[in-house]
Amino acid sequence: MSKANQILEFLQARNSAPRLTSPAPNDAELNDMLRCALRSPDHAWLRPWRFVSIRGERREDFGAVLRASLLRRDPEADEAACDKALQAPLRAPLVVVVFAAITEHPKVPAWEQRLSAGCAAFSLELAAEALGYAAVWRTGAYTEDAELVRDLGGEDHEEIVAFLYLGTRDGAPKNLPVLDPDDFHRAW
Ligand SMILES: Cc1cc2nc3c(=O)[nH]c(=O)nc-3n(C[C@H](O)[C@H](O)[C@H](O)COP(=O)(O)O)c2cc1C
After folding, report:
1. Nearest C-alpha to atom 17 of ligand 1 is from which residue?
2. Number of folded domains in the chain?
3. Which domain holds residue 154?
């Protein structure tokens, strides 16, 4: 198979893995993945992305941050919901939080900067899969919590676009739906 076809096959088969286990990309591999993300399309080269990686025991601290966020949003949250928040980061050996760092620019509105950060998150997913790992992109109501952004070291102009859970696929790959490009594309 030609190299181009191999790349197309890879891109057409990409899929998320909701269940992840160890190992995760190591620091050198994560660095390579970040280099891929840094080549995401970016109007005016604003570099509107930031990344925070959380692994090992720090995931427990992250769980505590999620639980605190849940309790701010819903002070009546029951123990089961609190436990779920606390345990959430333990679903993968590595979590990378992707932020959009939004700045004022005469030609680049905030939505374009958010899309660039989203492309960077997707690039991390692709790079992880290229290295033989797997990923799932999660968000949820936590992304709306400015205090959580600060707890993770984010600044006031930074928004969370992804909690990227990374590791090794746990279980069999899922069957992928076969979608027809004609259902989504028309020539104009
Ligand atoms: C911006 C964004 C936010 C997402 N948030 C969640 C989420 O909070 N929980 C979840 O289960 N999937 C979420 N997903 C979807 C999964 O990452 C994944 O794409 C989906 O399960 C479909 O699987 P596939 O990528 O293998 O087609 C999100 C995707 C995007 C692009």
Report:
1. 137
2. 1
3. 17-54+92-171
